[in-house]
Specification:
The protein is α/β, with parallel strands linked by helices and 446 residues long. It has 14 helices and twelve strands. The protein folds into three domains: 127 residues, Gyrase A, domain 2 (2-Layer Sandwich); 143 residues, Up-down Bundle (Four Helix Bundle (Hemerythrin (Met), subunit A)), CATH 1.20.120.430; 147 residues, 3-Layer(aba) Sandwich (Rossmann fold), CATH 3.40.50.300. The strands form two sheets. The protein has a six-stranded mixed beta sheet. It binds guanosine-5'-diphosphate and magnesium ion.
Length: 446
Amino acid sequence: MNNNDTIFALSSGHGKSGVAVIRISGNDLEKFAQRLVLPFAGEGVRRGTPGGSGIVPRHAYFTNLRDDNGEIIDQCVVIYFAAPHSFTGTDIIEIQCHGAPAVINKIFEFLRGHNMRVATPGEFSRRAFYNGKMDLTDVDGLVALLDAQTDKQRAAALRSMMGGDSAIYENWRDQMLEISAYAAAMTDYDADDLPPNISDIILEHIKTLYTAVSGVLDNYKVSRAIMCGINIAIVGETNVGKSSLFNRIVGANRAIVSDIPGTTRDVVSAQMDIDGYMVNLSDTAGLRNTVDFVEKIGIERTNTEIANADIVLHVIDINGSVTPVAENEILVINKSDTIDSRDIRGAIYVSAKTGAGIPELMHEIRNRIAEITNNGESTVMINARTYDLLMTARDELFAALNDFNGDYDILSEHVRYAADAIGKILGTIGTAEILDMTFSQLCLGK
Ligand SMILES: Nc1nc2c(ncn2[C@@H]2O[C@H](COP(=O)(O)OP(=O)(O)O)[C@@H](O)[C@H]2O)c(=O)[nH]1
Ligand SMILES: [Mg+2]
């Protein structure tokens, strides 16, 4: 991979579409951009160049895009972004053409003929990173934004991509580096020459940082729930109406509904959007003692689902046992259409058959989601990579506080390691593997 190559990619989605966007990134694209928008002899000037003959950056040119034989490939809009004012920090040309595979292929062929090559996945963002346009948390945000399916996912990812998280990390890192440098310099002085309460001041400062990092780590569950979805498992004995309830909630017939006990042997799941949150709802095999080998596997999977669930919908029919299966359960009594008494307190009575009680159940589910997600209060977005590094930073700060014993060298080292971990989150300190892993999650054209 060469950063000086001129690269191009389809930045819009694949398949037939009204308009497709092809992006080109390179070091000196002004002439080529001009070549794309210049009218041929005899062709009227339709593009309205404001003043002068050169191409104006960030100006939309409507043009007949011609190949090297002068033949028109398509009618396009071309926009030129001059470095460094572009997504990548290099020159960029954006070609908006008709979204037909034949048009796109023809333009690709034309670009290859001009010594340009197809970009690798994430290569545009990699350039943006190397040119200081984005740090790694911005890239993480971009990856998450492109994956966003619900409104809360969009909002959290956008905040991270636009530098909300970077600002917090940069601030921490600056403070850590300052403390580390200060502590290291102190070893050059005699204890009597230093202000009497200097170690208290430094330790207090480290404590504040420790609390801040811990606070963000505590929000990992919230961040995970928003980005990966809230897991809701429907659990209960066989034949109580779990699959019927699942279908009722999803609003589509996706699970097998049958009156033969033990039909649902595997986990069936569906993704839903509730109040802008992604929810992974799963229907499970009924819990009962069985000798059936396949059903046993199903029940084992049910137990895994319970362990991974943020909310368990524990379904019973009126004769079922109310003994909780999980701490985070909502007790749901189904088949309310067949019963008169409703005396189990705290339970929600529903009928998957008639739909009675479903609004009440959804209301309770919404309340639980609000609790789990902290009411959607925006937090730093954490993924597996940043989680590990935050843990390291926190442990190093903890070590600095606890191994200190008047040795400023040791304190300085620990705080510097903490600063390094935060630097790795930002990519300021980067290993090739971390970069490869982050950028490879991006699709072509990003
Ligand atoms: N009367 C009544 N029957 C129901 C209700 N929900 C489910 N059933 C019936 O109970 C049986 C078992 O339902 P199913 O959803 O397969 O239960 P699962 O084994 O827990 O998944 C089926 O015959 C359903 O039609 C309900 O609310 N009222
Ligand atoms: Mg079932």
